[in-house]
Write the structure tokens for this entry.
Amino acid sequence: MRDNVIGNSLRTVFASTYVPLYHAMARLDFERFRYCQAVAALLRLSMLGMMRAQGPEAVGFRSEAIAEVTPAVVRLLTRYAERKSGASVRLDLAPAPA
């Protein structure tokens, strides 16, 4: 998906307009919204950690899904979780079990 210029443009437009438009129609509690984003990111990091430790099947994914858990993905999600939560987040990437 990262090479899909049209899809990335649409996602960017959607992401930049959805929250402001929603907020204009129904007021958002941005502190609570940010908290929910942080919890979602931490849950995803936890799932990625379980995939690395116990295998992707343990959390409901196909075995080849482990290839998608790259250090770059973990770094990106870690930075996002840190930005949203304001807390330091760390997930060590030990080699995946064979």
Notes: Residues 29-85 form one domain. The two ends are 28 Å apart (CA to CA).
